[in-house]
């Protein structure tokens, strides 16, 4: 077939030359144009089209219109030229060829035109498989070719060669192939009738036998005709069909029966569309399973004829030939046709270049194809990279002789990319890194290699840390440590983008630790530590500059009280204010507790100390407003969050949580007084021991002390000190809690830091991994003193502690209730906004308020927070106006109500903080990659393994936090994490080998350098071994390209309990999990698919896969996601960062720009509609590119992800994770439809936490009814979650 195609191409070229000659011989000058009478409209149209094609000959539609106009005007000479130019630029369709050939045949005047017309026909059948065109070619040769008409041996051979070519191309076509067999057989029968001979009869008989062995739709008719012919022969009255022919015919008949349904699905006359494409793909898989490459090739030819510009179809076709046929000429021919049909696709050009190289083509041919590819009008940067890398790979393999050509190619390619894509930054540095490597290895020119990197640093890529890191890695791999150190010194002071300066500072320290001396490491640390501290401070201030400025403005505008007024107010609120503890004589002791003990620093206890009296008479007075707020916060905390305490201490803590604030204050004062005064009947030794304990308690509350909890048993004081030694100022001392009898560690410690900066740095280690456990770190308070050893309770986050501190300070400074609300509401905005974002349709949750007035005030404050969050221009004004309480509300009541809000906020913030603080687990292969994981709060029952899609990372599955600055916390991914954790599963998200910014895809490539399977297995084996989870169930979730990886992972990682493949499934051949009989090659676990209604190709692939699972007896099912209604609350119910007010604003803007229709549904795929991301910020300026949560960057945007989900074409969806886990826990034996209808989340996912799988008290029906607009045309509930078995 390859030779035939080559001959056809040569004939087409010859025909083009003949046509050019004919055109030059004929009259095609302007004078001819003038001699033909044209209407003004036609003349104007022809001139316009000629100008367009002269400027750009690659305008397909203009070619078609030009030819139609010339044909209508009967301008034959120009028509031939136009068709010749059209065919030089594009392959022509069957209809266009028939028009051209019919015009040529009508104009046939002498025998000299016959070879030219035959050449045109051979070119026609070379473009696409067309049985009618082959029939026309054979009939034309039979009736007009001079050699064939002469009847000599050469003429017979010529006709037979043409017929064999036709059979090779289309003789296996089930429904139309018999036409070609009929022409061939008819020609041989005519020869037999003209000159009867046994030899000719055998030739005819052979054709009959060959045809009957081929699966053709009219096989029975052919058999009947064959039997009649044999019996009509002399002596054939009793002829019987030979057994071997009969057996071959029966096999062919059964094959036709197998293919009949597929033939009906791809029958001629059907409009090209997704259904027809899916039918062709299914047909191809059937033929691939049968294992006959010739038949597979025919179906592929029929498919590309119907879908000539579907580039991935051409890629699959050529890929199949490369894997199975392996004939270079055939592969090159297919790629040559592919790039003619899809010249804008760089992948096809790149593969064509590589195929040409493998076939041993000369260098000149390869260079010519490369130049042609660059001039073909490629669309994007990646397209050019495919072509450039294919060419440079070829030159690199030629070695030193091609060094200069290689260098010039790199240089020209870099200039071309720079001119076409001046602002594009390739963060993977494929061209730069490859060029530098080739300069060093192939050209043996290290200075030139460095010049390549230096040039990259001067371009926009030099603004990113990735470029510097890649250059350093280039030097380091060659052992050039001095040069690498020099590069670190050059870049660590640069203000690189995306936090690059901090990255390079950390990288320098790591480099010196691994490669440098102790002195080198010290010098590097001295240089980078001030920079890192400055960057951390700037990041904290810039986290929310609007709120920071608003808080300062509110504080400045608050009424300023004199010292005397402040003192009078504080004495009115606390009669003990201003009283200092005075030493008393022992005989004056009344009760054994000193009033106000602990007012100053306590020196180390002497051997003896005079006893002091205690009054404690006024400890029953009303507590300050701050104490009320603190009490509310403490009361809202969970019991399991308390640190380890002695039984009596736990009783005291429980009593403190239930008692009023004044009673708690009294208890604390009594405890402090016991440490300061003596007690009657006490010996000196007892008193010394007691005072030593009081001194230790005072040290626990000393400045710059942190309480550390959950330490591993093997950790001692030295290990703790080493952990915190990196904090600024270092560690002054460590006190490890030990059992008095055994001396064993009790799992907690007090660490005393030298500076406030050291304390802050120590708190950043909260929930980090240390000796295999996640430790808790918080500022220290004495046991039992107000809710735990950590400040404001053991799980008080840094944001929570700051808010509670602001509450206490402001309550004592601000007299105006309205000003207090404005100040504290803005200062505590992160917590209040988190609370609002997590509020369900039935209002805020977990708010502890007492009276009706307090609860109303809480709701008013929440409303003010919404105003502040959506009014960036004047947050202070909005807060003061919206939160101004009634005149009869006191500052104390405001503080108490706000304390209740903050208490709920602390709880929610704690959940966010935990989900935002995953632990890194480095890949053992030394690649620098890592996985992120979290353990559930309950006993681990299994593991959820997450495989991200393209352009994503493990960071998508966790919220952004101080510990994970790169985490993006996309709603659907985080919802997966929450549901798995709440159900008791550990979660671990893996990272792909491909780290290119524009791709980042998991790969199952045959190329070991790209395949992610080995490294994924390696990191999981190491992780399971370290944490002892290897024997528990493992469920893998794959998204998009990650789904294609996950569905193949059982081959690499046996023992999985389940696979969840979301919005993707390879075709059976690409899957590679079944043998020729369709049986699984490995044991396969139960598998669930998530499918979206607007993705018919994935639906066809999943349908095929379900049939395979059914045939193998393995449970498998699919959940189909319908389009979602983008109601006014949709986005706020999906993302914790989007408030209901913001959701309403976004929905209204989307309707204005036409993305959402009047019924609330997405009008088109957001990934493909252009312009909306630029229009939306014109209505909502707070949607900025630089915002981590309110941007409109594809694959990074909270809004964009949920709009993709609402359109339901290709996006991750988390609504079904819980029922899917239940189904997999039942090993696929439960009814998945029932589970989905009962347990899916439907709309609301923000209500989820690590402890909560669903929304308590809110059913899915209530959610859907409360969020759907009255005029909604949403599908019914049954169709909204339909499943297909």
TL;DR?
The chain is mainly α and 1285 residues long. It contains 56 helices and 15 strands.
Describe this entry's structure for a reader.
The protein has 1285 residues and is mainly α. The chain has a 9-stranded mixed beta sheet, sandwiched between helices. It has a 4-stranded antiparallel beta sheet with strand order 2-3-1-6. Strands 4-5 form a two-stranded antiparallel ribbon. It contains 56 helices and 15 strands. Residues 10-34, 581-681, 784-849, 864-887, 900-914 and 1256-1285 have low confidence and may be disordered. The two termini are 43 Å apart.
N/C terminus separation? 43 Å
Proportion of residues in extended strands: 5-15%
**Order of the strands making up the biggest sheet:** 7-8-10-9-11-12-13-14-15
Overall shape: elongated
Provide the structure class. Answer: mainly alpha
Total number of helices = 56
Q: Mean pLDDT across all residues, rounded?
A: 76
- Main sheet record: 9 strands, mixed
What Rg is obtained from the alpha carbons, in whole angstroms? Answer: 40 Å
Low-pLDDT parts are 10-34, 581-681, 784-849, 864-887, 900-914, 1256-1285
Amount of helix: 55-70%
Number of beta-strand segments: 15
């Amino acid at each position: 077939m390859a030779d035939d195609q080559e001959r056809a191409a040569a004939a087409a070229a010859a025909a083009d030359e003949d046509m050019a000659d004919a055109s030059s011989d004929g009259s095609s000058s302007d004078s001819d144009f003038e001699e033909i009478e044209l209407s003004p409209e036609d003349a104007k149209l022809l001139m316009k089209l000629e100008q367009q094609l002269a400027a750009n000959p690659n305008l397909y539609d203009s070619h078609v219109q030009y030819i139609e106009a010339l044909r209508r005007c009967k301008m034959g000479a120009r028509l031939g030229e136009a068709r010749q130019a059209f065919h030089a630029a594009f392959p022509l369709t069957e209809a266009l060829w028939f028009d051209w050939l019919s015009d040529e045949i009508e104009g046939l005047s002498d025998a000299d035109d016959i070879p030219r017309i035959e050449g045109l026909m051979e070119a026609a059948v070379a473009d696409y498989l067309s049985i009618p065109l082959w029939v026309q070619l054979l009939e034309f040769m039979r009736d007009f070719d001079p050699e064939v008409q002469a009847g000599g041996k050469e003429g017979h051979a010529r006709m037979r060669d043409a017929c064999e070519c036709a059979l090779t191309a289309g003789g296996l076509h089930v429904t139309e192939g018999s036409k070609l067999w009929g022409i061939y057989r008819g020609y041989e029968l005519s020869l037999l009738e003209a000159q009867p001979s046994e030899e000719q009869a055998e030739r005819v008989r052979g054709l009959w036998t060959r045809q009957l062995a081929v699966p053709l739709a009219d096989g029975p008719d052919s058999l009947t005709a064959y039997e009649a012919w044999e019996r009509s022969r002399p002596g054939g009255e009793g002829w019987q069909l030979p057994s071997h022919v009969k057996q071959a015919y029966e096999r062919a008949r059964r094959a036709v029966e197998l293919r009949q349904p597929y033939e009906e699905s791809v029958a001629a006359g059907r409009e090209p569309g997704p259904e027809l494409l899916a039918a062709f793909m299914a047909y191809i898989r059937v033929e691939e399973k049968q294992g006959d490459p010739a038949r597979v090739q025919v179906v592929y030819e029929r498919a590309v004829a119907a879908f000539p510009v579907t580039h991935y179809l051409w890629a699959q076709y050529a890929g199949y030939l490369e894997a199975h046929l392996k004939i270079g000429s055939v592969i090159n021919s297919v790629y040559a046709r592919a790039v003619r049909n899809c010249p804008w696709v760089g992948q096809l050009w790149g593969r064509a270049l590589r195929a040409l190289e493998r076939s041993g083509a000369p260098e000149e041919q390869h260079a010519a194809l490369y130049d042609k590819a660059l001039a073909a009008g490629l669309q994007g940067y990646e397209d050019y990279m495919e072509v450039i890398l294919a060419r440079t790979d070829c030159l690199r393999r030629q070695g030193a002789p091609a060094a200069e050509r290689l260098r010039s190619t790199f240089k020209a390619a870099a200039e071309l990319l720079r001119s076409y894509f001046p602002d594009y930054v390739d963060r993977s540095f494929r061209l730069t890194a490859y060029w530098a490597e080739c300069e060093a290895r192939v050209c043996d020119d290290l200075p030139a290699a460095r010049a390549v990197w230096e040039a990259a640093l001067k371009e926009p890529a030099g603004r990113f840390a990735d470029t510097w890191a890649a250059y350093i890695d280039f030097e380091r791999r060659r052992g050039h440590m001095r040069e690498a150190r020099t590069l670190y010194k050059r870049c660590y002071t640069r203000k690189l983008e995306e936090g690059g300066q901090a990255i390079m500072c950390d990288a320098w320290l790591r480099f010196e630790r691994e490669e440098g001396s102790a002195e080198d490491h010290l010098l590097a640390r001295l240089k980078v530590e001030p920079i890192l501290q400055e960057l951390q401070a700037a990041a904290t201030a810039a986290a929310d500059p609007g709120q920071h400025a608003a808080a300062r403005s509110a504080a400045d505008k608050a009424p300023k009280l004199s010292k005397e007024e402040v003192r009078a107010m504080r004495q009115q609120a606390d009669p003990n204010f201003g009283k200092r503890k005075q030493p008393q004589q022992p005989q004056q002791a009344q009760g054994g507790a000193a009033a106000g003990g602990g007012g100053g620093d306590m020196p180390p206890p002497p051997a003896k100390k005079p006893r002091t009296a205690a009054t404690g008479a006024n400890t029953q007075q009303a507590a300050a407003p701050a104490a009320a707020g603190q009490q509310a916060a403490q009361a809202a905390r969970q019991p399991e969050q308390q640190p380890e305490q002695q039984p009596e201490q736990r009783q005291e803590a429980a009593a403190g949580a239930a008692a009023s604030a004044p009673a708690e204050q009294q208890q604390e004062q009594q405890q402090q007084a016991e440490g300061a005064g003596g007690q009657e009947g006490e010996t000196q030794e007892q008193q010394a021991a007691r005072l030593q304990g009081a001194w230790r308690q005072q040290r626990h509350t000393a400045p710059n002390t942190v309480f550390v909890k959950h330490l591993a048993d093997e950790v001692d004081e030295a290990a703790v000190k080493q952990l915190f030694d990196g904090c600024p100022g270092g560690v002054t001392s460590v006190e490890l809690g030990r059992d008095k009898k055994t001396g064993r560690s009790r799992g907690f410690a007090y660490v005393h830091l030298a500076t406030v900066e050291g304390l802050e740095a120590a708190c950043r280690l909260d929930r980090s991994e240390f000796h295999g456990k996640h430790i808790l770190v918080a500022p220290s308070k004495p046991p039992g003193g107000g809710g735990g050893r950590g400040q404001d309770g053991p799980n008080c986050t840094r944001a929570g502690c700051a808010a509670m501190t602001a509450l206490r300070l402001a309550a004592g400074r601000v007299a105006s209730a309205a000003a207090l609300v404005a100040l504290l509401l803005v200062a505590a905005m992160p917590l209040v906004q988190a609370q609002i974002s997590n509020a369900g349709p039935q209002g805020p949750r977990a708010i502890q308020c007492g009276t009706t007035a307090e609860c109303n005030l809480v709701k008013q404050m929440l409303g003010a927070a919404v105003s502040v969050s959506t009014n960036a221009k004047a947050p202070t004004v909005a807060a003061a106006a919206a939160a101004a309480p009634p005149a009869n509300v006191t500052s104390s009541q405001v503080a108490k109500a706000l304390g209740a809000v903050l208490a709920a906020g602390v709880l929610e913030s704690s959940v966010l903080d935990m989900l935002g603080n995953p632990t890194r687990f480095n890949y053992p292969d030394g690649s620098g990659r890592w996985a992120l994981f979290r353990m559930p709060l309950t006993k681990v029952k299994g593991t959820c393994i997450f495989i991200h899609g393209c352009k994503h990372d493990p960071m998508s599955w966790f919220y952004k936090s101080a510990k994970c600055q790169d985490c993006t916390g996309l709603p659907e991914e985080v919802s997966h994490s929450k549901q798995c954790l709440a159900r008791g599963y550990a979660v671990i998200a893996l990272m792909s080998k491909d780290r290119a910014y524009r791709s980042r895809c998991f790969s199952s490539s045959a190329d070991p350098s790209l395949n992610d399977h080995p490294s994924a297995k390696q990191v999981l084996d190491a992780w399971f071994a370290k944490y002892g989870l290897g024997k528990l169930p493992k469920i893998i979730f794959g998204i998009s390209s990650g789904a294609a990886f996950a569905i193949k992972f059982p081959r690499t990682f046996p023992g999985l309990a389940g696979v969840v493949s979301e919005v993707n499934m390879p075709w059976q051949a690409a899957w590679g999990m079944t043998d020729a009989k369709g049986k699984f090659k490995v044991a396969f676990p139960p598998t669930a698919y998530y499918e979206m209604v607007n993705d018919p190709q994935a639906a066809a692939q999943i349908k095929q896969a379900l049939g395979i699972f059914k045939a193998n007896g393995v449970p498998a099912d699919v959940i189909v996601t319908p389009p979602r209604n983008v109601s006014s609350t949709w986005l706020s119910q999906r993302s914790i960062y989007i408030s209901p007010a913001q959701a309403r604003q976004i929905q209204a803007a989307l309707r204005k720009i036409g993305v959402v229709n009047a019924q609330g549904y997405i009008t088109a795929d957001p990934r493909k509609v252009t312009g909306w991301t630029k229009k939306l910020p014109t209505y909502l300026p707070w949607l900025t590119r630089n915002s981590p949560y309110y941007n409109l960057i594809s694959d990074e945007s909270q809004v964009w992800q949920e709009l993709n989900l609402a359109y339901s074409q290709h996006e991750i969806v988390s609504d079904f994770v819980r029922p899917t886990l239940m189904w997999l826990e039942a090993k696929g034996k439960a009814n998945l439809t029932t589970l989905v209808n009962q347990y899916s989340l439907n709309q609301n996912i923000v209500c989820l936490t690590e402890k909560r799988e669903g929304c308590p008290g809110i059913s899915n029906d209530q959610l859907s009814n409360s969020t759907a607009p009255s005029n909604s045309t949403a599908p019914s509930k049954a169709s909204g979650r339909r499943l297909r078995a």
